[in-house]
Amino acid sequence: MTGKTCLVALDVGGTKTHLVVETLAGDRILDTVISSHDWDAEPAAHGADWLAARLKANLPSDIAAASIAFGAQGINRADTGRALETALLDRGYRVHAVNDAALIVPAAGFAAGIGVIAGTGAIAVGTDPDGQPLSAGGWGCVIGDEGGAAALVREATRAALKAHDEGRPDDGLLSALIQDFDVEDAERLTRKVNDDPRAENWAPHCAAIFDAADRGSLLAAKVIAQGAADLAALVGQLRNRGAIGNDVVVAGSVIVNQSRLFEAFKVALRQEHPRLAVHRLTVSPVEGALFLARAALKPAAQ
């Protein structure tokens, strides 16, 4: 294995980073998951330092990276990716950088299409006929990311507290959130959510919403349905801006693992875009980064 020339691929999400290294012949020599703690795509110097440190700490010392590609949360504009590429080149790494959602269409085996990620956050990406990247959503859980785990918790908390203030009996959603946040009552739930408005505080409680819906909470079911409709709206926004491809690939821990959200998303999308085919990603998104890393070698070989 000494001196192997390899492809390096990373998927940098909101909570974890998937790193894969393969030889040019396709032999996988590293497949590991590390924390995404303190990751931010901007400023570029910070993101480049973060990635360079992880590559240095995790890449085998006896490999040469022929091509590096990564998708990362926070690369919502093409110039953000280019700034990271330039900053990493200054640190000795030639890379190709895209948004993490842009990995899932190639990972699913499609040359064109729209990718929708609903995990900790939520974003949709595609490309226009000239190959330029397009994105919608991904604005963070305080003001956006509808359909993602943290935003679902935000909206579920709002819905449950509103019903509480209106004097309606708890249909199971409020008590589920109180129990999952390990607080005593609605007032303390408010403080627990408001005092730490970060995805790391909100997102881990998302499963409680789906559990409440399964136990009959109409409020929880309504929050989930609205999240699905918001995700479908992102696809519509991209289509209106010229996104190409008739395949929509979804990925992310929430929409992949929670059938309620996935099925509701398909229904919402079908209403507005009946010709689009929806696919749930069955491989890791990092496979899309591997595809991009390999594709980046082709111009040099020609």
Walk me through the structure.
The structure is a single chain. The chain has 302 residues and is of the alpha/beta class. It folds into two domains: 4-108 and 283-301, Nucleotidyltransferase, domain 5; 149-280, Nucleotidyltransferase, domain 5 (2-Layer Sandwich). Helix content is 45%, strand content 22%. It is built from 13 helices and ten strands. Strands 3-2-1-4-5 form a five-stranded mixed β-sheet. Strand 6 and strand 7 form a beta hairpin. The model has no long low-confidence stretch (mean pLDDT 91).
Short overview:
With 302 residues, this protein is an alpha/beta fold. 45% of the residues lie in helices and 22% in strands.
Describe the SSE topology.
Layout: E1 4-12, E2 16-23, E3 28-35, H1 44-58, E4 63-72, H2 78-90, E5 95-99, H3 104-107, E6 114-118, E7 122-127, E8 133-137, H4 149-165, H5 173-180, H6 186-194, H7 199-202, H8 206-214, H9 218-240, E9 247-251, H10 253-257, H11 259-272, E10 277-280, H12 286-295, H13 298-301
Parallel strand pairs: 1-4, 4-5, 6-9, 9-10
Antiparallel strand pairs: 1-2, 2-3, 6-7, 7-8
Helix pairs in contact: 1-2, 4-6, 4-9, 5-8, 8-9, 9-11
